[in-house]
Amino acid sequence: MNSSGRVKIILAGESGTGKSSLVKAINPGKNVNVTIGIDICLEKITLNGRDISLEIWDTAGQERYQSFAQSYYRDAYGAILVYDISDRRSFIRVGSWLNQIKMFSTVEDMVIILVGNKIDLDVREVSREEGLTFAKQNNILFIETSADERTFVVHMLEKLVGKILTTHHVSIKKSSETMRLKMSPEPAKKKSGGCC
Question: Which of 48, 133, 140, 194 has the largest count of CB atoms under 10 Å?
């Protein structure tokens, strides 16, 4: 956890892959704090009876600015690495983004989830198997989502945060009340996808 007592999660990937849409899908209508070209979404969830405060950092379309890379990645326990399943170029660049995450990460064993986004589109240039293979080869988690339809978005966050908790043995108070993620339910699944 960082100095604010929150678990920091960053988003990475090419522009146009739907990173900001994923943040909005996590909790629609929630205000996002904008700081120095970075959007920070504060989210509180309950997972397995434990209250967890999250800081979800998004580059706000500023991927090209490497000047703040070190501060962006600093103290992040998790990373959501996003590509667009309808844009092969965004998938090809995933390796470069993964290298950057590993280079600038200050947390040992940062948990990374590879997200193939936009499964609601009819066009697919990257198969689910390609994403899954890349994830397995790099020992990272994998899931496909649709930020626009909010398909598998809650599951993505649960999977990432659950792995962060088990990997880092984060000390978080037990919740005194029973609640789930503070998000609207996901719509019925229309497309194949999901996680491995």
Answer: 140
CATH number at residue 49: 3.40.50.300
Provide the domain limits for residue 48: 7-195
Asked, for residue 52, whether it belongs to a domain, the answer is yes
Rounded to 10 degrees, what is the CA torsion of 186, 162, 171, 110?
-120
Two tokens, residue 137: 């080869």
Count Cβ atoms below 10 Å from residue 111 Cβ, excluding itself.
Answer: 23
Q: pLDDT tens, position by position, for the chain (196 residues)? A: 544 568 999 999 998 999 988 988 987 776 555 545 677 888 888 888 888 899 999 876 555 556 667 788 899 999 999 999 999 999 999 999 999 999 999 999 999 999 999 999 999 999 999 999 999 999 999 999 999 999 999 999 999 999 999 998 755 444 333 222 333 344 444 445 554 4
